[in-house]
Design brief:
The protein is mainly alpha-helical and 174 residues long. It contains 9 helices and 2 strands; from the N terminus they run H-H-H-H-H-H-H-H-E-E-H.
Length: 174
């Protein structure tokens, strides 16, 4: 129970800090800043628990007693954080599926004519925002009117390819 409490408490604290920062100003490299906030809170929180548990002992919240409990808190917190960051990246720019559903939903009960639908789906609404984010996050760069992967982008691409192969997913985008 302590693992769930402390992992959730630290995650909630990081989430609140994230909300406050985003209310002030949304950073350019959002994912990087999220990682710094969340793992900074984790490291600081674990340090406080280890360095001065008497602060906590005077309250109703008892800190973990042994190293495996701290490891479990870290694993639980990391799982929550990575799941949140994946979810956040889906909110950062609308997914093509979400754009399609929203366009059809906005048409109402009458539905949407196929020709109008086809005119709504452009590179400006689907592709360009993603390219902009890849450039901003330094996963790709421009080299004489050509997009090229950075080492960071290449690593991400390899991870996804390995994962697709592991799951035996051969069809791409269809």
């Amino acid at each position: 129970m302590k693992v769930v409490f402390w992992g959730s408490f630290l995650f909630s604290l990081a989430f609140i800090i994230h909300l406050i920062i985003w209310k002030i100003r949304v950073p350019k490299s959002q994912t990087t800043v999220l990682l710094k906030i969340f793992f900074g809170v984790l490291i600081f929180g674990i340090f406080i628990l280890l360095a001065n548990p008497s602060i906590i002992l005077n309250s109703i919240f008892i800190p973990p007693e042994n190293p495996p409990a701290y490891l479990h808190i870290c694993l639980f917190f990391t799982s929550l954080t990575l799941a949140y960051i994946v979810t956040y990246s889906a909110l950062e720019v609308d997914s093509p599926s979400l754009v399609i559903v929203m366009i059809i939903s906005n048409a109402g009960k009458e539905g949407l004519d196929k020709d109008v639908f086809d005119k709504c789906l452009t590179d400006d609404s689907l592709l360009k925002p993603r390219i902009k984010n890849l450039l901003r996050d330094k996963m790709v760069f421009m080299d004489r009117e050509k997009y090229k992967l950075t080492p960071k982008g290449s690593l991400i691409a390899k991870i996804f390819l390995i994962y697709r192969n592991l799951l035996n997913i051969k069809e791409k985008g269809g």
